Amino acid sequence: MKVEIWSDVVCPFCYLGKKKFENALAQFEYKDQVEVIWHSFQLDPNSHYQPGITIADYLVEHKGYDAEDLKEMNSELKERGTSVGLVFNLEKALPANTFDAHRIIHLAALNGLQNEAEERLFKAYFTEGKNIEDKATLETLAAEIGLPASDVVNLLNGDQFTDEVKKDIHDSKSLGIKGVPFFLIDEKFSVSGAQESNYFLRALTKAWVEEV
Predict the structure, then answer these.
(1) pLDDT grade for 86, boundaries at 50, 70 and 90
(2) Which of 15, 57, 96, 208 has the most CB atoms lying inside 10 A of its own CB?
(3) What pLDDT score does 69 carry?
(4) Helix or strand (DSSP H, E) at 2
(5) Each residue of 148-159: b (16+ CB within 10 Å) or e?
């Protein structure tokens, strides 16, 4: 069975959804027969790192968010993260364009490390406050999960996997995906958002029963 996930590594609900899905998958009887494929999505293709600007500053100045509302949202996200073992330090998060990060994830897929790449990038952004648009930072994170350094340098200095990222984004539009995370199970069943683990487990079970 195949599960495809459209996600962006600066999306807090994608991080939550990943964890909740993994908790469900761990309980699924046929988990060893499930292939998980991550697809690229960009919440804000126009976002870029700006020295001295946090994501809160960016959202207030460029997206019209209210500063107090953001504090409340961040507090809620921190609590939701804690409930599933994730640490959200959103006050540290930095605006970043994620296109190169998605290219790294495609490279990781070739090396059987796609899930590790997703996890490391999520943690770098939400917990550690790293600039995941920075090439040197991406090289370090890629090395930590075991990607060959020369492959990463060549990727970041060229256009490898550019078409693949664009295709993922195009496919998301074709499927009518307007928000992430979005889970597509065996191209038949879809789950949108960071649902609870028992919801994911029911979806996996239903898809499996219909498949067999």
Answers:
(1) very high
(2) 15
(3) 93
(4) strand 2-7
(5) eeeebeebbeee
pLDDT over 90, % of the chain: 96
pTM: 0.96
Q: Which two tokens stand for residue 47?
A: 């976002």
User: Quick one: DSSP state of residue 174?
Assistant: H
Classify residue 41 by its DSSP letter.
-
Instruction: Record the tokens describing residue 185, joined without a space.
Output: 């199970």
Q: Would you give the DSSP letter of residue 38?
A: E
Element (H, E) at 183: strand 182-185
Cα separations in angstroms, 26 against 22, 51, 126: 6, 40, 24
Confidence of residue 211 (pLDDT cuts 50, 70, 90): confident
- Rounded Cα distance between 194 and 108, Å, is 24
Task: List C-alpha distances in Å: 64 to 56, 70, 74, 97.
Answer: 11, 11, 16, 19
Q: Which of 65, 77, 54 is nearest to 129 (CA)?
A: 54
- Give me the residue label for tokens 């995941």: 132
pLDDT digits (tens, 9 = 90+) for 190-207: 999 999 999 999 999 999
Helix residue ranges per DSSP H, the chain: 12-27, 55-63, 67-83, 99-110, 114-126, 135-144, 149-156, 162-174, 197-211
